[in-house]
Amino acid sequence: MNIEKCYFGEAFGKAVDKYTLTVDSGMSVSIITLGGAVNKLLVPDREGKLADVVGGYDDLADYVEGDGYQGAIIGRFGNRIAKGTFTLDGVDYKLFINNGPNHLHGGRLGFSHKVWDAEAGIEEDGCTLTLRYTSPDGEEGYPGTLKVTVTYKLSQDNALSIKYHAVTDKKTVLNLTNHTYFNLGGFASGKIFDHELWIDADSFLETDETLIPTGKKISVEGTAFDFRTPKTIGRDFDLSYEPLRIAGGYDHCMNFTKRAEPMSEARARVYEQRSGRVMEVWTDQPCVQFYSGNFLNNPDHDFKGGYKQGLQNMFCLETQKMPDSVNRPDFTDCTLDVGETYETITVYKFLTK
Ligand code: GAL
Predict the structure, then answer these.
(1) Residue 82, strand partner residues
(2) What does the radius of gyration of the chain's CA atoms come to, in whole angstroms?
(3) What is the DSSP-derived secondary structure letter of residue 74?
(4) Average pLDDT over residues 35-41
(5) Whose CA is nearest to atom 6 of ligand 1?
(6) Probe ligand 1: pick from 77, 80, 105, 319, max atoms within 8 Å of CB?
(7) Measuring from atom 8 of ligand 1, which residue has the nearest CA?
(8) pTM beyond 0.90
(9) The CATH number of the domain where 240 resides is what?
């Protein structure tokens, strides 16, 4: 096992470093301190050959200016908040509007655009990178000074875990996630339609044209969203089906059939047949945003090695609470009070078959 650190550039007047954590199988993860973004993830295939399976940029400027939140920690609130407003204990809060009429992924300069303090360490069974950021009261419109710690751990059994921890000094709302894009054949290998996907979710959230949940939970039964039996992402990818048309593909909050808390089994699994790579998602969170990369057509930002991504070339499985739950008492609770500790974990485990 070993850890390397190098300078990656400068953003917002601060130096940004890149840490690479490597375990004995050869698997490694590179994380930059801007946004705590996973920049590279080398994973063995069934022959032991490594490929980089995540999206990202070579150039720091693309992380600052590009959209898509490649690999980044998302906060304070994953996904959209309708009209960027909510009321907490009778007080109205106004957030930055950065996505049509709505607030998305923490606003103009959310956690994906902060330079985090970093500390690397080697443990008996893996390497860690601990990232810390204190978000001031009122940042992007959110109440409370929020102290956040995110710990990445790459373990000897080829699992990348992400632990989130936060405390606040005033009642607030919080929904942290990670926005890594995957293509298990390698990030530059084209469409994801052949990936076989299993998600143990029995319903998904309907959205309006601005991708805000309407409040309706739809049963996956008999729909393109039924991944309870593994099927390829492409099999039912039909944009004439209304929910897929609205979003340009899969971009929906899938509600797990059961909570795995404490984590006892995977909640989602992806298999790429040519390489044999399998990725399992273990989490204590109630939902996952399955996003099939429907906006990946920005020609201004070249991906690593100059690669041009295209629509549905990578997917995200963003474990989270329900989008816009700040405005819907019947959705998952997303408040964090003084004296409480926000603690969640998600693990992406890699295997082959
Ligand atoms: C996803 C979201 C998409 C899109 C994307 C960033 O998490 O569900 O609608 O905003 O982030 O391009």
Answers:
(1) none
(2) 19
(3) E
(4) 98
(5) 68
(6) 105
(7) 251
(8) yes
(9) 2.70.98.10
